[in-house]
Amino acid sequence: MFATLRRISRSTSLVLLVLFLPALLFAATPTVERTGAVSAPGVTDDLKKAIEDKGYRVTLDDGWTAEFWFARALPSAGKESSGALYPWFANGEFVAVANFPKGASDYRGQALPPGLYTLRYQYLPQDANHLGVSPNPDFVLAIPAGADAIPGDNLPLKRLVALSAKSTGTAHPAVFAMAAAGTPSAVAKDDQGMIVLTVEVPTASDKAAKKLGIVIKGQAIQ
User: Fold this and answer.
1) What does DSSP say about strands 111-112 and 94-100: parallel, antiparallel, or unpaired?
2) Total-model pTM
3) Which of 86, 89, 191, 204 has the fewest Cβ atoms nearer than 10 Å?
4) Where are the alpha helices (DSSP H) in 28-93?
C-alpha cells in the first residue's frame, strides 16, 4: 500500500510540475513593453513636450519595474570625446524621464526612493578621480523631476551634480552607466554582467533612429 501511495504522490508531483513550470518560466522572463504618455502627477508641460508620447515599461525577473520616456529628438552632432559611446550628446543634455515605482539602485549602489526623475547625459571626466570607474565614460545622472523642470537647459557639471545629489540624499549624484546598445526594446546582460536596456530614439537632424543602451541594474566594482 505504501508503495502505491508513493507512486501516486510522485505522479501528482510530476503533474503539478508540468502544469506550473511554464508559468514559472514566463514569470522569470524580463519584459519590455511600450506604454502611453507619462501620467505621473507633477510633471510640467515643458517635460511632457520634451518626451515621446510612448514610453517603455521594463519588468525584470525579480519583479523590479521602471518606466522610461525618451526625448522626442536627441542631438546628432558629433564632438571630440575620447572613447565616448555616444559622442553626439552634449554634457548636461536632457535624455529622458524615468519612473521608478519601487525605487532603484544606481551604478554606485546608492538607493533612489520611488518617484519620477529626469536623466541627463554626462561624459565622465577623465581625471585621477574617475579613471577605471567604468569601461565607458558615458553616464546619465538622475534628478528628481520636481527639481528639473526645464529640459531645454543644458546643465553645467557643478549644477548637474548638485541637483542629482538630491536623488540620493548624499553628497554624490545618482549615476547610471551607459553601455553598448543591443537589440532595441529589450534588456540583456552585457559582458560585464550588467543588465542593459536598449531603445531607439529619433535625432533632431533627420529623425533617423539611434540606439542607446543604459545600465538599469548592475554596480561598479568598488
Assistant:
1) unpaired
2) 0.83
3) 191
4) 45-50
